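Q: What structure does this chain adopt?
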Amino acid sequence: MTKLAVDAFRTVGRGDAVPNGFVVPYYLTDRKLRIAIARVDGRLYGFDDLCTCYQQACPLSGGLLNGTTILCQCHGSQFDILTGAVINGPATEALQVYEVQEVEGTVRIQM
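A:
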């Protein structure tokens, strides 16, 4: 891996902080952005933590994860965490998804 490719990723936390089948929120202070990291079948997925439904910001990290589908606890919207696509509304806007890797026990995300 080239130095440029490594530098494109930033560390957000420890790998053991994201157990299989769970979603963990992180706040990137420099970007004023909430992201969520989920581990499903040993693989990590990164996506915006705030639901795109309505005007009320609702954290998806508090919702229900079923496989690679996350359910918004506030309005019931469902999203595919692989692509960010809306599976079921009321949300109509997809989530931003991020490439995630686990390196030497740390979770790294590409912004």
